[in-house]
Amino acid sequence: MKYPYAFAALATVLAAPAWAGDDWTTTTGAQGVYGSYSGSVQRDSVTGYGAAVTAEHREKGGATLMLNHTAVKMKPGNADIDQNALFASGRLNFKSGEDGGTLTTRMDVHAIDNDDATKDTDEVTAYAPQVSYLSADKRRYADLGYAHTDYRNNLSVDQWTPTAGFLLGQNNWLQVRGWFIEPSNPARAQGKDSTSAVEGKLTHWFGPAQPLGLNNVRLSLLAGERIYAVDQDAGSVSNLSDIQRGSLSLGGEWKIGKTGSAIAILGREQNRNATLGNDYDLTYGYLWLSGQW
After folding, report:
1. How far apart are alpha carbons 158 and 137 in whole angstroms?
2. 77, 50 Cβ separation under 8 angstroms
């Protein structure tokens, strides 16, 4: 691992509740993902696992640190890729004087290290600030995110992600996000000098009557195209150069005891390698387990 400062950051996050008292909570979790490619002439499967810790103050903000390892198994004739990724995020909350809502400033940092022989996806760094607003009644949300990602071999990527969220009734939350991405070098981006997409996420909470123990279910749909995307919700960077042309996923969350949680997601993505004229799909399953104290 090329990022020894991650351990110092991890110690700081874990220590936060100790010096702040009862106003802080700490959440730790582990995640895993497995995906299978169909129709790809280069890729066979992908496996990933990681761990995250978050310290959150009830009013002031919080910090998150996440470490992930990903292994991409390639088809014969292509070299497999092993990758380590570090994600660090800090947030500060401010109360709005006019209506009592919450204004949040956030800064994310990503660092990626892998053994890609071309070096095109190795030593990637991304910086992603975001400003968001949540109304006092928690029925309306908006944010504006930006990300700048630096790659080796003459490529940088700028991204804007305006987002709006609404509470529909009492049990449904709808979030809509636009993705506007501009690579600096089309030759490194499947000939694209820009891509755009729209993503919708719908979450439904079941309340006291929970079928199969489900606390909530969530549906996500992406339409359009995006490349080299930095995902603020997932804390991840898509550093492979293929174009994502749409996705659909369905997930559910189960509460475990008073402080535990489990999230499972099944999804499918459509992708294209324009250089090879290769359209292919990725079908994946994701699992997250966490506890809070």
Report:
1. 34
2. no
Return the pLDDT at 21. Answer: 57
Average pLDDT, the chain: 92
pTM: 0.91
Say what the pLDDT of residue 23 is: 87
pLDDT, one tens digit per residue, over 187-200 is: 999 999 999 999 99
47 phi/psi in degrees, rounded to 5? -130, 140
Tokens of 65: 């640190």
Structure tokens at 179: 């993705």
CA distance 197 to 2: 33
Look at the block and give the residue holding tokens 């810790």. Answer: 53
Higher pLDDT, 8 or 283: 283
Q: pLDDT digits over 212-250, tens only?
A: 899 999 999 999 999 999 999 999 999 988 999 999 999
Categorise residue 279: left if φ over 0, alpha if ψ from -120 to 50, beta otherwise: beta
Cα 60 from Cα 43, distance rounded (Å): 44
* Residue whose C-alpha is closest to residue 195's, from 171, 179, 207: 179
In Å, how far are 42, 46, 68 from 50, measured between CA atoms? Answer: 25, 14, 4
